[in-house]
Amino acid sequence: MKFSKNWFKAKRRVAKEYEHVKDFRRDLFFKLEALLAREYDILVLEELSVV
Questions:
Q1: In the chain, how many domains are there?
Q2: Where are the beta strands (DSSP E) in the chain?
Q3: Is the pLDDT of residue 51 over 90?
Q4: Which range of residues forms the domain containing residue 16?
Q5: Residue of 50 and 40 predicted with greater confidence
Q6: C-alpha torsion sign, points 16, 21, 24, 29
Q7: Do the Cβ atoms of 12 and 18 come closer than 8 Å?
C-alpha cells in the first residue's frame, strides 16, 4: 500500500504537535516541582495502583 505525500505531511504535523505537548507538560512539571520544593520542607509522593 502506498501512502500519499499529504498523508506523510499530516503524520509529521501530528507528531510535531504531540512532541510540543510532551515538552510543555514536562516543563510544567519541572516548574511545579521547583515551586513545591521551595515552598515546603518535606514532600511525600505516593504511587497509587488503580485496578
A1: 1
A2: none
A3: no
A4: 1-51
A5: 40
A6: negative
A7: no
Instruction: List pLDDT tens digits, range 28-37.
Output: 999 999 999 9
Gap between the Cα atoms of 6 and 40, Å rounded:
51
22 near 15, Cβ under 8 Å?
A: no
Q: What is the pTM of this model?
A: 0.64
Task: Give me the chain's average pLDDT, please.
Answer: 92
**Cell triple for residue 21?**
505537548
All cell numbers assigned to 32: 511545579
SS3 3: coil
Contacts of 20 (CB under 8 A, 6+ apart): none
Whether the pLDDT of residue 27 is over 80: the answer is yes
Q: d(Cα 21, Cα 25) in Å, to the nearest integer? A: 6
